[in-house]
Structure formats: structure tokens, C-alpha cells
Amino acid sequence: VFGFMIEKNSENKAISKWKYRVVFQGNNVQTQNFDWATFQDQGSSPATMEASKAVTCYGCLEGNAVEQADAEQAYIQTPMVGTETWIELPHDAWPDSWFHGDRDITRPKYHRPVVKMLRALYGHPDAGTMWKDHCHKHLTNTGCILVDNWPSCYWHAELALFLTVYVDDF
Description:
alpha+beta; three-stranded antiparallel β-sheet; two-stranded antiparallel sheet; 7 strands; 16% helix; elongated
């Protein structure tokens, strides 16, 4: 995994903010035998362009509204399932106990330690499927039902809510 920091909305300092993300380096994955790892094809289907237009149209009807929301920290709320994955942490993510004395990276106690990945971090080839399944479970627990033949589209009859999910946007 590796971390990077970006400034969101850098063009407008009044609303800009710094965000730090840790992602899985999906282009550098090896098996325990040091062979290159392979993954299954994408297991989630994004909402179609027609679905997004249908939601917008529905929201424009009298008495309705259209809103967009972003799932906060979507991938780190999603448990890692399937094949056990072990990752090498960057030095700045190491706990203090992995160093001799101060956090001097020239004096670590371990050489390239690994830890089990517990969350489906962005960048993992199967993370999108894990997030989709996690999100689907929570949406159906609230009364939403998946719309037949429209991937990632949900209907909540009691609220008359038509919802599309695109990656981590609602």
C-alpha cells in the first residue's frame, strides 16, 4: 500500500482541504511464491447512463428532488473478504513498537514486515465488488430493493426513493 495527499478544490482556497488516502498498489501484487497474482474480472456492474437520466427525470417531477451524496470512506468501511491478502506498510504507518527507540527508519526492528489487510482498500482488483456487496446489504436492510435489470439501481417504496449507486456516489 502507499499513501498520498491531495488538496481538494485547490482553485478555491475558501473551501479547499487536504485529504490523505492510503491505497492498495494493485499493479504490484505477488503470490506467496513471488509469482504475479491474478484476479477475477470485475464483479460489479455500474449504473448505466440511462439509469442516471431516469433518476434525474424522476427527481424533476413535481414534489421530488435530486441529490448527490458521496459515501464517506467507502472502501475502508468495507471488510476484506475472499483470498487472504497481506500487505507491506509504508514506514510512516508502522507502529512505534516496530522501531528501536525513536522512529528512526534506519533502525527498524524488522525487515519488510507484512500485515493482513482487513479492509477492501481502493486499488485492490476485487475492492469494487466487496464495496458493492457491502453497500447492497446495507441498502436492502433499510428497505431498498434492487431494480430488475438495472444494475446498481434501488427503489424504496415507502419513501418513493429512486437511488443509483455509482462506485461510492449515491
